[in-house]
Amino acid sequence: MTDSVTTEVEQTVDAYLTRSFDAQRRLALVDARAWDPTFLDEVQALGWFALAVPESAGGLGMPLSAAGAAMLPLGRHLVPGPMIEQLVLPALLLRHIDEGDARRAELAGAVVALVDPEAHGSWSRDGDRVRVRDGHLSGDLTAVRFGREADLLVAVADSPDGPQVHLLGSRSAAVTVQPAASADPTASLATVTFVPQAGAPAEPVLAGRAAERFLTEMRAWARILAACELSGIATALLETTTAFVQVREQFGRPIGSFQAVKHVLADMHALACSLRNVCDSVLADAVSACPDDLSMLAAVAKAFAADAALEVCESAVQMHGGAGFTTETDLHLYYKRALALRAWYGDHEELAHRIGDALLTGSHVHESRNVS
């Protein structure tokens, strides 16, 4: 994918959000627990969720780097909703599931939630696991993003023959979905419990090596898109804070004229720009990377993003003074979103250990539960 096409995707999404998604609309979505089917239908009609869907399935057939380019402005404008899931999961599933499988048709226009025990890495609750027992799914998982609102669940399960990927309706008899508390006002969370049934056994859409290939790619792109969203958040707070210190006065002059404030803004600028450069580089390289290299690129991007974006958020709160600690501004929404994304598919410390382990042993980046 050329840089010009990536730039065009980013600019198109940003222009629409600048025109049609203001702070009031964001707050309305937050008040609705980050869920508005009408807004999702609007985004679907714009073709954003079809960017990386194969042309044979009615999509635009772009590489997944186009989804990353879209996440940059989605993060900058802090758009609530299952954006990463909708941009990545249908596109990847349609690339991996056999074309003759009738279940591919279920993905068309569906809202998809991801039930993956690895999503929360070392932050996972003990016992968070989904297993295949006697041909049926069992177990539960907490903090599933948009599990209650989704039409379909993409469930990752352990089996005696290796990992399996299942696609099932969120309202089927084999599943119960209960709301869970969310500290992130831009995401709805749920606890998903699988109830073994006496009926027909669960049939995976992917199993064995095919499931492993899908999971490697899916988890890598989830990390990359999370890094891109965090980059957008860092950019937005840098812009907001730069504007604020130029109009907020103390001792008869803008606080941005004080050297201590300038130093903080300079550090914020360095972090935000560095993170953006990392995301641009990873998006350019990821399309042609082999699975092991893709995992490494994704881990590096997410590790840096988890740390850099959070530091920018904390500096923004500090520079806004007392206003930064209130809910009168949107700073707290950005900060809470960055905190939630920090842990999703690994925070800085966890991923740094995995990257170091891979470099020292000459192997690939392992998932958290496989690290020795």
From TrEMBL:
Cofactor section: FAD
Q: Where is the Acyl-CoA dehydrogenase/oxidase C-terminal domain?
A: 220-359
Origin, by domain of life?
Bacteria
Q: Name one GO molecular function term.
A: flavin adenine dinucleotide binding
Q: Does the record's keyword annotation contain Oxidoreductase?
A: yes
Q: Which family does it belong to?
A: Belongs to the acyl-CoA dehydrogenase family.
Sorted keywords for this record are: FAD, Flavoprotein, Oxidoreductase
Q: Which InterPro entries match?
A: AcylCo_DH-like_C, AcylCo_DH/oxidase_C, AcylCoA_DH/ox_N_sf, AcylCoA_DH/oxidase_NM_dom_sf
* Protein name per its UniProtKB record: Alkylation response protein AidB-like acyl-CoA dehydrogenase
The record's PANTHER family line, in alphabetical order, gives: ACYL-COA DEHYDROGENASE, ACYL-COA DEHYDROGENASE FADE28
